[in-house]
Structure formats: C-alpha cells, structure tokens
Amino acid sequence: MKYRIVLADDHAIVLDGLRRILEPEFTVVGTAADGRQLVRLTEQFKPELAVADISMPLLNGLDALRQCKAAHLPTKFVFLTANLDVGLATEAFRLGAVGYVLKQAAAEELAGAIRQALAGRTYITPLIAGDVMQNLMNPSEAPGQVQLTIREREVLQLLAEGKTLKEIGWVLNVSPRTAEFHKNNIAAKTGLRTTAELARYAARHGLVSSSG
User: Fold this and answer.
1) Bridge partners, residue 56, by sequence
2) Quick check: 188 and 194 in contact, CB under 8 A?
3) Radius of gyration (Cα) for the chain, nearest Å?
4) What is the pTM of this model?
5) How many CA atoms lie within 13 A of 128 on its CB side?
6) What is the separation of C-alpha 201 from the centre of its chain, rounded to a whole number of angstroms?
7) Cα 169 from chain centroid (whole Å)
8) Quick check: helix, strand or coil at residue 53?
9) What is the three-class DSSP state of 101?
10) Rounded Cα gap, residues 98 and 92, in angstroms
11) How far apart are the first and last CA of the chain?
12) Among 87, 59, 202, which Cα is nearest to 143's?
C-alpha cells in the first residue's frame, strides 16, 4: 500500500509539478492552495505526510503545523520552501517538522526527504543543516520572541495580508469586534500599532512572505 500525502502550495504550477514527481511512489489524496485548506485536508484524510510551503495565504505553513499538532493529528510535515532563513527552519523543527527542503533542490532530494521522514528520520537541506542543528541543541541562544496565541497569529497574518477586521472575522468565523480584540492584544504585546508595522513584524517571523 502506498503512503498517502497531501500537498500545499499557493502556486498551481508547483502543485502540478509535485503531483507528477510524487504520484508514481505515493498517493496524493489532496492539494491545498492555502494553510487553512491544508488543515482541513489533514483533518479529513489524516495522511501519513504533508508536503507544504511555509509562505501561504490565510494561514502560513508553520501555523498549519501548529494547528495539526494541537488537534493531535498523526501527519508528518516536510516543508518545501524557497526560504533559507535558519531561524525559520529552526522554528519548523521545534514545532515538530521532520523535513526542510529547498525549492531549488532536485526532485530526488525531496523524494529522499519524504522517504526518510516516513522511516522516522529527519531531513534538513545541507545548506543550513549545521546552523539549524546548532540552534536546536542550544535553544538558549535563540533570540527571544513575543508569545502570541494561535488565534493572535492568525489575526496578525490576515492583517499583514491587508484584510479588514470584517474580512478577518469572516475567515475565522468570529465577529469583527472579536477580531479587533485580538488585534489590540497583538499591539499591546508587540508595541506595534500601524498595519505597516504589523506587516513587517509578521514577515520577520515567517507569518507572511517578506518578498510579497
């Protein structure tokens, strides 16, 4: 029996390419164009593995992983990203990711990372593997970060994507007043007030792409 995989990326051409690469060996049970859809697919199919980008609309890959872990879903996460940020990769593994592969890597590298993940091992792209392992072994050296709740991180990402409080309420199924409450909490914790400041903060911490 083939292992089941879900794929998540906000570029359709990437999803099509990944499906062609992986389907001879694995069963792709679903594809997602944003992090919220990825969580829904993972809840629905409970696949053995998810291959996901970090920068995705509505909910980034790291927070999708957070939500799946909070729901005690068994799916393992391998991130396929263009982002070489060591801090972001370190955070991914601290959250429970089992793979981190760069998009410029060869297709066989991704397939190999997936095989290792399914065998209970971890794969880190060689370009940053040493630095990531050093960070993981020396957590006290990692820079401090404001602790936001999962819901506050959701609201912050949506604010950074330019959504209004009403739109945020619609996405999260809460009232605009509740969205504003979370926005105020974020501002109090970070000391940031303007949307531009919040967007820069979100990009620095991997909630949205810094390249737009």
Assistant:
1) none
2) no
3) 17
4) 0.84
5) 20
6) 16
7) 21
8) coil
9) strand
10) 8
11) 40
12) 87
Residue 139 is classified by DSSP as G
125 within 8 A of 135, measured Cβ to Cβ: no
Question: What number of other Cβ atoms are within 10 A of residue 191's Cβ?
Answer: 9
CA dihedral of 141, 142, 146, 149, whole degrees rounded to 10: -130
Separation of CA 64 from chain center: 5
| 44 and 64 Cβ atoms separated by less than 8 Å | no
Contacts of 90 (CB under 8 A, 6+ apart): 132, 135, 136, 142
Per DSSP, the three-state class of 149 is coil
pLDDT tens, the chain, 212 aa long: 799 999 999 999 999 999 999 998 999 999 999 999 999 999 999 999 999 999 999 999 999 999 999 999 999 999 999 888 888 889 899 999 999 999 988 888 999 999 999 999 999 998 888 888 888 887 654 445 678 888 998 999 999 988 999 999 999 999 999 999 999 999 888 888 888 888 888 887 777 765 43
Q: What tokens appear for 76 in the block?
A: 């393992």
The tokens for 186 are 């974020």
Beta bridge partners of 27: 4
Cβ proximity of 9 and 33 under 8 Å: yes
Residues constituting the chain: 212
133 contact partners, CB below 8 Å, separation of at least 6: 124
In this structure, what token pair is assigned to residue 12? Answer: 């359709």
